[in-house]
């Protein structure tokens, strides 16, 4: 397992959710207790973001992909599934500094939306994707 993968139990849960959503109309209700157990306090807010269809998968012609998640505060966060990273302050604090959480609610929402097939889709040019990647972060406060 390389450094860019989630723990096996988390990967397996996301695979089970993907399979269940493809095979039936069931949502994540049957998985909610396991989601809460594995992802802790990020699970319920992430499910809310999925329900609100707040996740957009952004793709360029070369196949590069990132996710943009409209947070509950109205701010747009960029998530990179290839390295499990989000631009939100909670990711930097709870995930990277404190190691209290596996993921923030935004990147978990991106994974869940992808698994459930509920992502909004946006195709952009290579230049537009580069502009998204190079956008400076707004200062908080």
UniProtKB/TrEMBL annotation:
Q: Does the keyword Cytoplasm apply?
A: no
**Its domain of life?**
Eukaryota
Q: Which UniProt keywords apply?
A: Metal-binding, Zinc, Zinc-finger
Q: Does the keyword Cell membrane apply?
A: no
Which GO CC terms are listed, alphabetically?
Shu complex
Domain SWIM-type stretches: 77-115
Q: Name one process (GO BP) from the record.
A: double-strand break repair via homologous recombination
Q: Which GO terms fall under molecular function for this chain's record?
A: zinc ion binding
UniProt name for this protein: ZSWM7 protein
